């Protein structure tokens, strides 16, 4: 028994000595990465490292270089750093508009192969240069932390559907659903905003949804947990619906297999109303107007997706589950069946009549 314990201890010590160690003070940990397409079709990239100062402030340190592929780019950047740059703390990766349109397959392939990159790393596109976004200064906690928090709280409480590296790779590698990413835009050197949703066909961005469509898009692809929406009631009256919670279910019509049915359920609270008095009757009007708006705008989005040949919602997954031998019908789905589908949207809205009267 003693001999067995001795062997175990020796084995553990030998194995632990084989593990590559990194002393935190002797390395540079990536917090954010930006990749653009240079004029000569090379990649131009920036790696952001957050340096924590003694007074607890954070200094943004930037390394920039070019390369033919992502690995070449990283090797060139390593030559500019006095310490090894590692990816273990990477929080946000941003792709510029030019490379997003050309295709991000090489970068995505590298992300899939690198075990050091966590699956919760947020991916995003940019309206214009991705490097320009990292060149700003967005608060005392560092740009990487700021951008991660910007995406995180808009996913949890606003109109950005849930997304991260793991979710993007799942959709990117699927034959039955297309990927999407939030788009960032630099306003000035101290401000950046989420400006829309980039829609992908395989590795190429083919369209961008504007900000005013993001509420409806999230209803279709995800669920709201604490959203808000301004409802126009006519006669210069408006109602602010907050604490919106939603869920949706997609199914194929039993009578007509070329029709998909979406059932959307929304719960919310009226927190502000510009009329004289909030009542049950007004709440009923808000419910009807919101349901009407959701139905109309959702159908517009779906038709837009059909015209572009993209399926970010995942209708293909429903199609596959209802058709035997659907694996052989991938080509038919993309070229014919999806474009010829009709859609019916049933939206049920439940509104509580409480809040502030203006």
Automatic annotation (TrEMBL):
Pfam families with a match to the protein in the record: Spore_GerAC, Spore_GerAC_N
UniProt entry keywords in alphabetical sequence: Germination, Lipoprotein, Membrane, Palmitate, Signal
Membrane topology, record value: Lipid-anchor
Single GO biological process annotation from the record: spore germination
Gene Ontology, cellular component aspect: membrane
Organism whose genome encodes this protein: Cytobacillus praedii
Subcellular localization(s) per the UniProt record: Membrane
PANTHER family for this protein: SPORE GERMINATION PROTEIN B3 (PTHR35789)
Main location: membrane
Gene3D superfamilies for this protein: Nutrient germinant receptor protein C, domain 3
Residues in Spore germination protein N-terminal domain copies: 22-185
UniProt domain Spore germination GerAC-like C-terminal: residue ranges: 195-355
Record family assignment: Belongs to the GerABKC lipoprotein family.
Lineage top rank: taxon: Bacteria
Protein name stated in the entry: Ger(X)C family spore germination protein
């Amino acid at each position: 028994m003693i001999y067995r314990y001795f062997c175990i201890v020796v084995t553990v010590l030998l194995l632990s000595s084989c593990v590559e160690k990194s002393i935190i003070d002797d390395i540079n940990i990536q917090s954010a990465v930006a990749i653009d397409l240079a004029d000569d079709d090379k990649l131009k990239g920036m790696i952001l490292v957050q340096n924590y100062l003694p007074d607890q402030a954070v200094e943004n340190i930037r390394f920039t270089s070019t390369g033919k592929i992502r690995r070449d780019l990283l090797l060139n950047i390593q030559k500019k750093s006095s310490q090894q740059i590692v990816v273990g703390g990477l929080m946000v990766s941003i792709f510029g508009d030019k490379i997003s349109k050309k295709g991000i397959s090489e970068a995505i392939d590298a992300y899939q192969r690198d075990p050091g990159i966590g699956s919760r790393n947020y991916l995003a596109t940019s309206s214009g240069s991705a490097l320009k976004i990292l060149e700003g200064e967005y608060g005392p906690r560092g740009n990487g932390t700021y951008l991660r928090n910007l995406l995180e709280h808009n996913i949890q409480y606003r109109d950005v559907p849930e997304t991260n590296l793991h979710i993007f790779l799942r959709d990117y590698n699927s034959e039955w659903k297309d990927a999407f990413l939030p788009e960032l835009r630099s306003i000035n050197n101290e401000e950046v905003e989420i400006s829309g949703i980039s829609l992908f066909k395989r590795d190429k961005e083919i369209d961008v949804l504007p900000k005013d469509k993001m509420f409806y898009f999230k209803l279709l692809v995800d669920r709201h947990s604490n959203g808000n929406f301004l409802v126009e009631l006519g006669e210069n009256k408006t109602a602010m619906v907050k604490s919106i919670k939603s869920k949706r279910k997609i199914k194929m019509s039993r009578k007509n297999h070329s029709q998909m049915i979406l059932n959307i359920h929304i719960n919310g609270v009226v927190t502000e109303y510009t009329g004289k008095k909030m009542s049950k009757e007004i709440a009923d009007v808000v419910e009807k107007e919101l349901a009407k708006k959701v139905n109309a705008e959702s159908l517009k989005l779906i038709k837009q997706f059909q015209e572009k040949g993209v399926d970010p919602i995942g209708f293909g997954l429903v199609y596959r589950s209802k058709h035997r031998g659907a694996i052989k019908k991938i080509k038919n789905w993309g070229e014919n069946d999806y474009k010829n589908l009709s859609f019916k949207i049933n939206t049920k809205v439940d509104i509580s009549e409480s809040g502030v009267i203006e």
